[in-house]
Amino acid sequence: MNVIDLVVVLCCVSSISCCMNGWTQFENKCYLFSRQVESWIEASTVCGGFNSKLAEPMNTNTSHFLISHSQIMGGIFWIGISDIIQEGKWIYSTGQIPIKVNNFQPGEPNAGTAANCVALWAAFYGYWADENCLARYKFICEADNMVAA
Ligand SMILES: [Ca+2]
């Protein structure tokens, strides 16, 4: 085990945050809640520029963290879930696999082919809404634990 591996292990088993400045740690990942607004695809590009991706909550705990933290930060946030490829089939962008957690607000999704991207909707206390992918909202990037060099 080299020094870097050791630091990563320490980060993962302790309360030390190993996220870059401005990112928020939850479990073994780091999240950036943007201040700027972008369309869904532009948001995805911005996240990619930081060696990250639009957040893809894989379990209820993570999804609820994103929802609650979005309320703290304030605003509407894109995440990396869409039904762009096939209407009504909600998938994570990475791997294009069906969602494992569903936090759509009751009554959502409700906009069919006019809305193919998932946003944490402020008026729903952060629960999900299907939205037009071209709308410009804040967004949440997700990265693996990062250690400042
Ligand atoms: Ca749709």
Tell me what the structure shows.
The chain has helices at residues 3-13, 40-49, 60-73, and strands spanning 24-26, 29-33, 53-54, 77-82, 91-92, 117-120, 128-131, 138-144. Strands 1, 2, 3, 4, 5, 6, 7 and 8 form an 8-stranded mixed sheet that branches. It has one domain (31-142): Mannose-Binding Protein A, Chain A (Roll). A hairpin with a 2-residue loop joins β1 (24-26) and β2 (29-33). It is built from 3 helices and 8 strands, in the order αββαβαβββββ. The mean pLDDT is 92. It is globular and about 50 Å long. The chain is of the alpha+beta class. The structure holds calcium ion. Calcium ion binds at residues 83, 87, 112-113, 115-116, 130.
Any chance you could write out the topology, listing elements then pairs?
Blueprint (H helix, E strand, L loop, with lengths): L2 H11 L10 E3 L2 E5 L6 H10 L3 E2 L5 H14 L3 E6 L8 E2 L24 E4 L7 E4 L6 E7 L5
Parallel strand pairs: 4-8
Antiparallel strand pairs: 1-2, 2-8, 3-8, 4-5, 4-6, 6-7
Bound molecules: calcium ion.
> What gap, in angstroms, lies between the N and C termini?
17 Å
Number of helices: 3
- Strand tally, please? 8
- Would you give the CATH topology? Mannose-Binding Protein A, Chain A
What labels describe this entry?
single chain, alpha+beta, Mannose-Binding Protein A, Chain A, 8-stranded mixed sheet, 3 helices, 22% strand, binds calcium ion, CTDL_fold, secreted, disulfide bond
